[in-house]
Structures are given as C-alpha cells and as structure tokens.
Design brief:
Blueprint: H1 5-39, H2 47-60, H3 62-72, E1 77-78, H4 79-82, E2 91-92, H5 94-110, H6 117-120, H7 123-140, H8 145-169, H9 176-203
Antiparallel strand pairs: 1-2
Helix pairs in contact: 2-3, 3-9, 5-8, 7-8
Length: 204
Amino acid sequence: MKISGKKYAGKSDAPFQKECPQSLFLTLAFILLNALAIYFDQYLLNLLPLTLLVLAIAFYHLDWLFFALVFLVPLSVQLKYLVPGLSFDLFLPTEPLLAGILVLFILKLFSGEKMEKSLLTHPVTLAVLFYLAWMAVTSVTSTMPLVSFKYLLAHIWFIISFYFLAVYVFRKKKNMFPLLVVLFNSFFDSYNLYGFAAYYLWSE
C-alpha cells in the first residue's frame, strides 16, 4: 500500500506545527524573564536550562548522570564564592545533583520499583542502614537538631548516589570503562586547576 507524499507529510508535520509555537513562546518567555532577573542582579535563573537538561538525562540515562557526578565532584565550587552574602552554602554543581538523585530514587520507590533483595540483605547494606538509623536517633536527641538533620540528609544523598546508584550502574560491566575515563579526566582537570590556583596565589 502506497502513501502519498502529501498525505504523509501532513501527518508527520502536524505535531511539529502544533508544538512549535508553544516551544517558541516558552523560549521567549524564559529569555525575557532571565533578562529581567539579570537586570536586578539575580543570576540563579540561568541554572534553569541546566536543571532541565539534568532532569532529562536522569530520566532517560541514569548512568550518564552518575558519570557526570563523578566527573564534577573534584571540580565543585562553593556557592558563597559565586553569590556572596547568602545565609546558606553548598557545593555547585554536585550537591544539587545529589539532592536530585535522592528525589529521583524516592520517586522510583513510590512508583513501585523495588530494590533487589540480595542488595538489601547484604552485610554492607545492613551496616550502612544501621549507621543512618543511628544518626537519625542521635539527631533527634541532639542539642542542635536542625544542624544534625542537615548532616544526616547530606549523608543520605551521598550514600544513595555512591552506593545504591553505583550498584545499579555497575550491574552492567560495560560501564566500567566509561568510569575509568571519567576518573582519568577528572584527575587531570583537578590537577590543572590546582596548578592554576597555585600560580595565581604565588603571582599575587
């Protein structure tokens, strides 16, 4: 059965023609809002495209997000150096990535995805869970519970990312080679940045 070029083109172009004005409107709206924010010296809106890109990668390629996280850990910068005067501080971009992975992990559990029983009953996993449970108990009885719970939350997203997610990623042996490449590049990037920083300090 033949399909005429005109009929086929009409069907294929219809979704594109419908979505194109919406995408154009959203793009222009973001440009205008971002320009207005920059005018008032607010630069955090620039992170929105990067955030959406990370969410798309996390949804379709969780292993890519893990490799990006490993690569960016030694290159992280404290927020207080980028935006002075804030009442809080965190490392960019790794800590937002870790928080996003934690949220994604919780959503996957609520959506019905189950973890392997062999992983949950492994002695290392039991030791890690006992450690987190004990931290939660001591956070309740702490003299500074808010600080203690922030410390607990930081531990949770590190363990979720570098233990549970790592198990998921390295279940596929083909992912070992990309990890070695990422670690190699990350090491040399860190070494170069350290050299530049030392040169800058000595030149001052």
